[in-house]
């Protein structure tokens, strides 16, 4: 007997891919929008990062930040599984929680592409990464961020979403400002290493604008989740 499954949560497609004009407009929108007011916790991560990697954007700094970026989504995924198990007697609620798990996994995948793309740009431009600054430190910060994310999620999920929105806002502005400060990137062709999975852009500038726009989408999703932090 063949069973047809016509409704199951598919992996979301991820943030929309923009064309050249839309990417330029997206960059201008970001530059025209003031940064969020960052909380003390967010500043506790941004400050040491600026001290260790410099205030200016760079491929190595972005690659390091992308290691950390997927951590809250991992924390929410794990908390989601715990909640599904906790509410196993309420199938409709468990299904809604599972939908959020699927979203969290899609966002982790998107951040993973960012990391792979940035790491590829680091290698192509021959920038040096050290064990301390680019392996040990990101791991330590990610460790801290992971635990902060799930503990916050347990006590005040809206705070956990807010913290991620601040992190995403910081990333969005970081990419868009970097592109504005390095106009020559508009003339560097996108190497297209992950074109099949992430799309191919006219230039490295457009590739980074697309990543910046993904970060804005992540931010807006987290702000949206803040309005209904607990699945009911
Ligand atoms: Fe990212
Ligand atoms: Fe992000």
From TrEMBL:
Q: Which domain of life is it from?
A: Bacteria
**Pfam families per the UniProt record, alphabetical:** AOX (PF01786)
Needs which cofactor? Fe cation
User: Which residue stretches does the UniProt record annotate as biased composition, category Basic and acidic residues?
Assistant: 1-10
The record lists the membrane-crossing segments as: 136-155
Name the lineage. Bacteria, Bacillati, Actinomycetota, Actinomycetes, Streptosporangiales
Q: Where is this region: Disordered?
A: 1-24
Keyword NAD in the entry? The reply is no
Cite a GO CC annotation.
membrane
Q: Does the keyword Electron transport apply?
A: yes
**Protein name per UniProt:** Alternative oxidase
What InterPro entries does this protein's entry cite? AOX, AOX_sf
Subcellular location per UniProt equals: Membrane
Give GO MF terms, alphabetically: alternative oxidase activity; metal ion binding
Going by the UniProt record, its keywords in alphabetical order are: Electron transport, Iron, Membrane, Metal-binding, Oxidoreductase, Respiratory chain, Transmembrane, Transmembrane helix, Transport
